[in-house]
Amino acid sequence: MAHKKQFLPTKICAVCKRPFTWRKKWESNWEEVKYCSEKCRRNKA
Question: What InterPro entries does UniProt report for this protein, alphabetically (predicted)?
Answer without folding.
Answer: UCP037205 (IPR017136)
